[in-house]
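Hi X.,

You mentioned you wanted examples for the new student's onboarding notes, showing what a folding record looks like when two proteins sit in one file. Here is a clean example. The first protein comes first, with its sequence line followed by its structure tokens.
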Amino acid sequence: MTRQIEAWLTDMDGVLMHEGVPVPGAPEFINRLRATGKPFLVLTNNSIYTPRDLHARLTRIGFDLPETAIWTSALATAQFLADQRPGGSAYVIGEAGLTTALHGAGYIMTDFDPDYVVLGETRNYSFEAITTAIRLISKGARFICTNPDVTGPSNEGLLPAAGSVAAMITKATGIEPYFVGKPNPMMMRSALDRIGAHSRTAAMIGDRMDTDVLCGLEAGLHTILVLTGIATKADVERFPYRPSRVISSVADLLDEV
């Protein structure tokens, strides 16, 4: 049975842009969503940047996308912590995207007996900061990580990401983190709550089977895999689950919005 899609969630890298260049038809897709007034959000597991940073980045390459239409793993993490322990404290390893989100949620940043150690993405992981995180977790701080991605892309090749650093901290402490970002369906549910949408009438567009499709599937969304990023048609057959649809790019959805 074909669903009537009333709300759209879409990944950013690999769906709307690839290696810093817009995917053909992606700016038009966003424009069409805005023109129809249908609720939508652009999602990313990258916790480095604030929505304002990402808005500026996307504007430079031709997208007309407001800050309020961007939902990051940092924002989802801040919302989760605010719900779990309002007005709490955290020792944070991360960049402005994460610290700004946590401050906005009323959290205090401290290395003195924090409620949580929160690990996010950064290009400047330091031995000193990781050592502090290990000691605080060993003393009882709860361990949270924005996303489980073990590597991230760069123009020079793969970079270690938050998941890799989390694994190192887990090896030292014996404590597994709670990952908030994709493929945790919480990332999708918090996004849907933000735009007042329901999973039964929403779709998730992504370029990865192991995060985007899995997350959308577990949250009960219609899932659409695009082939403009990481996944190929052959990759689909390797997984025990399937997306609702496989398409070449978001350009194929222009007539459906």
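Then the second protein repeats the pattern, sequence line and then tokens:
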Amino acid sequence: MTDAVALSVAVSEPSEPSDWLREPPRPSDTSDGSDSNSQEEYDQKLLAAVRDGSWLDGQEFPELRYAVPGLLPEGFSLLIGPPKAGKSWLALDFLLAVSSSRQAVGKIAMSGKRRVLYLALEDGDRRMQDRCRTLLGEDPIPELFHYMTEIRPGFIIHTLEAFLRRYPDTSLIIIDTLGKVMPPAMPGESAYQRDYRVAGALKRVADHNPGLAISALHHDRKAASEDFVDSVSGTHGLAGAADTIVVLARKRQATEAVLMVTGRDVIESEYALVMDGGLWTLDGVNLTDAAATAQKREDAASLGDISVNILAFVREHPDGCKAAAVVTKFGQDAYQYLKRLEESGRLIKPKRGFYIAADAIPGMEDDES
């Protein structure tokens, strides 16, 4: 059975376990006392995939490749957000940027034109053309941009593998939405098992094609959660199988949003975005600047102006700042603000009269102790 067929069966219909999943036959004694299948052969089958440190130390692996630098690395990712939040506009922006070498979200430079596939399963040709022209302006829709508005039910993996056989240079595939291709659970299969099976199959397609990024759009839970990974709708099977999770957080009718990114290979961070007429733009000159803007927005939403300004001042000193310097700039009342910021966990006081921003210490902003 080929990889393509095996993956398709894994998603579309029940099947018997493939041979490599079956338990190898155990050694059995024969009448003359010899083993027909020796213990050594049995162990060899079980341990065939074991590698040692010497082998690993001698390998030279290619660098991780990104479809969208800093945001979408190769592998399987989920793009999460509430309905009508602008996920499809963001996905189309990524696809057009990759296929035309224009800047993604208005600020992230691409390195050359690369082929993409958009499974726009909630759209039609007219809407696709209108949205592409909205984002591209006078520029033509790139030839390396491919799309489909429908596929045969249960044939998502077949379809992806067929496209990749025809176009092995594909860099980015986006599925809009995952719910449109999600198969029913097999008999006796839990929702978690179904979610992990589907996400795992999509991940294997990406893994079998080095440099390829596959991203699936999916709705959020609609319930608030402190950990944005928990916002993924469905069981943890989806999030568990994904290499990268990207969450678009935007309030209804708001023009500002935050793009939260985490994963096995990306730097976990939050980036500020703004939307204008369907066009998403990074709120900053680059990702680092957009991350700072996202932090300022969060501070402004929960703190007063003076606290925000004091916190920003301390952040300007990554190695720490003396309380006296804060008081000199903001007056005697700054001591009370520093105390409140420390109590809220935003500032750390490693020694008397000295403060460091918690987010300037790796991992400290997530420390609950």
